Amino acid sequence: MYKTLITCFIFLICSFTQSYADDLEKTETELYEEAVELFDQKKYKQAIRAFHKIEDLYPFSYWAMKAKLLSGVSHYNMGNYSSAASDMDDYIYVYSNGEDLPYVYYLRVLSYYMQINKVQLGQQTAYKTLELATEYINLFPGSEYVDEIKKRAKLITEHISTKEYSIGKFYLRRGEYLAAIKRFQNMASYKDSKYFSKSINYLIAAHSAIGLDLEAEQYESMLLAENLQDAKPEA
């Protein structure tokens, strides 16, 4: 049994070595074209291995840069959004002047966006995605993807607002006013949210309940100013 295992191990090592020896006889372009063919055939797992091989054999080369991008796209198409985001992070770090940066940043936003509803990740992913979406809008205002990113940013804002508002109300009902205040304060910067005015009203109530009348008055003034602003006729 032991001899059989040794024989199998040696066979695998020899096969692996021979495979890399064969790859070394090919040009970067040939390896890349073979990997792209697998990608086009939607054989993403095989394509990812082929792209990684290019990165291993020819690190920091032009084709390694292209391989990193398509590796991320492959992960995304397979639904491996965390791996796709990691690939895009690596691309941005290693190829900071890469020709595909607008698309790479775009794919990174999408990769995080697709993970927002994973319960175990909590709200952190939503906040991170909104941060990345805002960064994208600032970096690439003329990009062909910017309108889509703006729409997704709005959806993320509503997602965050709905969650924070719901949790804030839960704490308020339980009389946990400080916890409720923390949640509703998170809403204060989202003036376009449908929950903004309600959250400010709850902040007034929560502060008043624990005797913080000055803070309550400040939020009353904020709400009044916002209502006056909304009441102004458009020019």
Q: Based on helices, strands and strand pairing, what is the structural class?
A: mainly alpha
Helix content: over 70%
Largest beta-sheet characterization? none
Rg over CA atoms: 26 Å
Q: Figure out the total of helices.
A: 11
List the secondary-structure elements in sequence, H or E.
HHHHHHHHHHH
Q: Give the overall shape, derived from the CA principal axes.
A: elongated
> Would you tell me the overall average pLDDT?
86
Strand content is under 5%
Number of distinct beta strands? 0
Distance between the termini: 87 Å
Low-confidence spans: 5-21
Please outline what is shown here.
Residues 25-218 form the Outer membrane lipoprotein BamD-like domain. Keywords: Cell outer membrane, Membrane, Signal. By secondary structure, this protein is mainly alpha-helical.
Explain what this protein looks like in three dimensions.
The chain is mainly alpha-helical and 235 residues long. Helix content is 76%, strand content 0%. It has eleven helices and no strands. The longest helix is centred in the last third of the chain and has 28 residues, at 146-173. The radius of gyration is 26 Å and the shape is elongated. The N and C termini lie far apart (87 Å). Residues 5-21 have low confidence and may be disordered.
